[in-house]
Amino acid sequence: MSTTTLTPVPAGSADTTPARPVAEEGRIGLRGNLRHIGALARRNLLQIKKDPESMFDVLLMPIIFTLLFVYVFGGSVGGSLGGNRQDYLNYLVPGLMAMMGMNIAMAVGTGVNDDFRKGVMDRFRTMPIARSSVLIAKIVVELGRMMVAIVILLAMGFALGMTLGTSVLGLLGAVALSAVFGAAIMWIFIVLGLAMKTAQAVQGMGMLVLMPLQFGSSIFAPPTTMPGWLQTFTDYNPLSNLADAVRGLMMGGPVANSVWVTLAWAAAITLVMAPLAVSKFRRKT
Description:
single chain, 285 residues
């Protein structure tokens, strides 16, 4: 790991500018980066331990969404699927799994914004650590929260009578695909967190983005029941591809095209947004 070189300031000088590392983060090796990510992830986990209320969304959201949509819309939407409420449960839970990453991703943006407001990020930027490690540590912890939400969602689904149409490997593949896409979406919200002035603004903008994507997709209802113009939007909505891929991996059916399209979306989003997020993190004042 590189060392930090500081320019000495003469005694009595009025210059109170905080010392910044001169060394470039590119000199930090892979082992150093991993060590920094681990330490910063532990710091974020300790924050959750000190504030357990921050886990309420992860613990309650899967339960509320499952009960709400199954018992309010399950009868009518299940009928459009040619079945009943039980068939809708099998349709809904994979879709909700695809949605978990989108909702939890918002917490990354608000968390980054809040850390800057408190001055935590300014301290990190004076340290000889890779700037990307600060952001990746955020994503690692949020992926852990996402896994907790998915476990609760699946437990709720099986408790209500959901049946797995494929195998455990298919289920694990669905979880992994949801995590990959969720991690990509988190980079978008990190950029929003760095660009917006307040955490409330990040939440507001996030909802404006999430609501059309979630409800204009195949997560909650089959697109065949939608107007033609909305079906067109749904066909190109990456959340629809993710929901269809997760549904196929869990319940059976063709999945190859949906999986590859979802992975392509995740790769494209990450390749564009991750460097942008790191650049904005360096330059943010």
